[in-house]
TrEMBL record:
This is Glycosyltransferase. It is an enzyme of class 2 (transferase). The keyword Protein biosynthesis does not apply. The keyword Transferase applies. PROSITE patterns: UDPGT. GO terms for molecular function: UDP-glucosyltransferase activity. It comes from Nicotiana tabacum (Common tobacco).
């Protein structure tokens, strides 16, 4: 269907964090392929993230509003990557101040959007959509289990707020967690604080959305998809993932990639045996402390396993704050068995290489899906946000992963860590299950698969608006 046949105009509103924007842009790419007219709302500093999509789809319009800021954010910050997890709430509250401007923009349009597709962190957009008189469609970059848990929390906050150990007996498989392993939004929430009330009310408003779209797939979370449909009282809950499988331009986008460094990585991998390499990376936000980095590098050394370690380039201030870079002499000592990448790494391609058999990860949802698509087992070190919940699902229920460590401040014993790495990497059962899950993910996005069906259904419904 070409845009002239469709021409249905949609406004896309991503949340400015790397792990949020990319999946929503992948979904946007799919909508563009079906001929929708798209406008994407961003603040100035987040505009470059759209470059790969804009060069593939020049028809995309951008709506750029200055970021209104927030008292607790340093001047000039517009993306979570510049402040870490603690920036989520103030950025959500800051963006909510755009409500009036968005409303004015809608009124001034000769052909205004007929729906707003927004990131689930921006739940206040749901009420704005209602005021404008268009459907609000919430896009979840996370799994359904997390959203089911958040729904329970906000609905019965009083019952949960004082507990040190929390059980969700009304949910399938009765998930249970110590308080420290609950989502950060629950732990940090301050009752009565205006910023936090915007966050909480937004999550509650998501439950009123016209449609809910998830970056997950049926074989991974069928019970929770069923649970959520029952909770919401309708079937307009769709799973269209793993969206990185159907993908789009800019998913692996990094314009300043060092080609020779990339070649070095894959030349090295080509010389390794199948499934013998452990890939170690902790997402775009998380930094390890000096003690953690030392324990990790010694653990990798003691494990006897081949590995690729991605280490961030630290600023002088981060070093001063106690974050750790790769200890001196480490690269020389492991040169035959290990490869250290400083800065950005082509994660999707590395995971997809036949030599990689494991992924030591913080268990962020995007990383989880990338590992699943590659058919690689995860060695979990969850630290914050949704990561403990994702790790619980993979370790306790899917049985495709091992937990080798946990907690943002925990320093593992290096010998013990080395032993766990070695054990997990020689566990053929985990590797087998990871491959089975990969096959189910591939099946989901094929014609006739559950995710492809749901994507087609969304396109059909939106085309009729």
């Amino acid at each position: 269907m070409s845009s002239s046949e469709n021409g249905v105009h949609l406004l896309i509103f991503p949340f400015p964090a790397q792990g949020h924007i990319l999946p929503l842009l992948d979904f946007t790419h799919q909508l563009l392929l079906h001929g929708f007219k798209i406008t994407i709302l961003v603040t100035p500093k987040n505009l470059p993230i759209l470059d790969p999509l804009l060069s593939t789809h020049p028809s995309v319009q951008t709506l750029v509003f200055p970021f209104p800021g927030h008292p607790s954010l340093p001047a000039g910050v517009e993306n979570v990557k510049d402040v870490g997890n603690s920036g989520n709430a103030p950025i959500i509250a800051g963006l909510s101040k755009l409500r009036g401007q968005i409303l004015e923009w809608f009124k001034a349009q000769p052909n205004p959007p007929v729906a707003i597709v927004y990131d689930f962190f921006l739940g206040w957009t749901q009420d704005l959509a209602q005021e404008i008189g268009v459907p609000g469609i919430v896009f979840y970059i996370t799994g359904v289990l997390l959203v089911s848990i958040l729904g329970e929390i906000w609905k019965n906050f009083g019952a949960y707020k004082g507990l040190g150990f929390i059980e969700f007996n009304g949910l399938p498989k009765s998930p249970r967690f110590v308080r420290e392993h609950m989502p950060s939004v629950f732990q940090k929430y301050k009752e009565g604080d205006p910023t936090w009330e915007i966050v909480r009310n937004g999550f509650i408003a998501n439950g009123r959305s016209f449609r809910s779209v998830f970056n997950t797939f049926e074989a991974l979370e069928s019970e929770y998809l069923g649970f959520l449909k029952k909770e919401m009282g309708h079937d307009r809950v769709y799973s269209i993932g793993p969206i990185n499988l159907v993908g789009g331009p800019g998913r692996n986008g990094k314009s300043n990639v060092d080609v020779s460094a990339n070649e070095r990585i894959f030349t090295w991998l080509d010389e390794c045996d199948d499934e013998s390499v452990l890939y170690v990376a902790f997402g775009s936000q998380k930094l390890l402390t000096k003690a953690q980095m030392e324990a990790l590098t010694i653990g990798l050394e003691k494990s006897g396993v081949r590995f690729i370690l991605v280490a961030k380039q630290l600023t002088a201030q981060q070093l001063e704050e106690g974050y750790g870079s790769v200890p001196e002499g480490f690269e020389d000592r492991v040169s035959r068995r290990g490869l250290v990448i400083k800065g950005w790494a082509p994660q999707v391609e590395i995971l997809g290489h036949r030599a990689v058999g494991g992924f030591l990860s913080h268990c962020g949802w995007n990383s989880v899906l990338e590992a699943i698509v590659a058919g690689v087992q995860i060695l979990g070190w969850p630290m914050e946000a949704d990561q403990f919940i994702n790790a619980w699902w993979l370790v306790e229920n899917m049985k495709t992963s091992a937990r080798v460590c946990e907690g943002p401040n925990f320093v593992p014993g290096p010998i013990e860590l080395g032993r766990k790495i070695s054990e997990a990497m020689s566990n053929d059962l985990f590797k087998e299950r990871a491959k089975k899950l990969r096959d189910e993910a591939l099946e989901a996005v094929k014609i006739g698969g559950s995710s492809k069906r749901d994507l087609d259904e969304i396109v059909r419904e939106l085309s009729q608006l």
